Amino acid sequence: MGEYVDLVLGIHEETLTWWQMSARAVGVFLAALLIIRIGNHRIFGKNSAFDIVLGIIYGSILSRAITGNSPFWPTLVAAFVLVMLHKLLASFAFYTNSGVSDFIKGASKTLVKDGELQKEAMAENSITENDLTEAVRSSGSYGGIERIQYAYLERSGKISVILKNEGEE
């Protein structure tokens, strides 16, 4: 059985055939699904810098297993270790103080407070008034910046908006 797997995956080959690379792609796909299920679903569910960096590295590692640029089995183990490290750091950030969490995952920024634009925070994060107006529309509301009570640039990079009550406008 081991020799068959070695042949199909081209484990000891100098160059891979198209069907060996295809078999590796299927194997890596199945292994990646298993690793993500064992690890942490948030890798692709949230878009914090922490998660994006992990996704890029994860994809890079797995591509090496498919193309044969790295040994097949150790590369899959490295991908597994990376996902487990991600899970550990995410748990550590959850159970420790907010400073650690902010360092690992980032922190939200206040863009509008009590209806007042926070120009410094907007400039630091390259957010324009048009971006805020778009966020109001994306929330399913109408109107412009004058309707915003609070707005935050979330860790994911999305802008969340809390509108003023009807009587406050």
TrEMBL record:
Chief location: membrane
Keyword annotations: Cell membrane, Membrane, Transmembrane, Transmembrane helix
Membrane topology: Multi-pass membrane protein
Signal peptide residues on this chain, from the entry's feature table: none
TM segment ranges: 16-36, 48-66, 72-95
GO CC terms, sorted: plasma membrane
Location in or out of the cell: Cell membrane
Residue ranges constituting the YetF C-terminal domain according to the UniProt record: 97-166
Cell membrane found in the keyword field: yes
InterPro entries: DUF421, UPF0702_alpha/beta_dom_sf
Family assignment from sequence similarity: Belongs to the UPF0702 family.
Protein name: YetF C-terminal domain-containing protein
